[in-house]
Amino acid sequence: MMILAEIGEVGIHAGADCYKLRPSLYAISQLGSPEEIVRLYARMMGAHPSITDALHVINCCAEDDVSHIFGHLDPGTLQFVPGLAQPEHAIHIARALLRHGVTGVLPPLGDGAPKDGDYTDRFVAREHVAVAMAHLGASSRDAWQMTMTELVGAMRAKYPPPPELDAKGKP
Question: Per-residue DSSP letters for 111-126?
Answer without folding.
Answer: TTSPPTT---S---HH
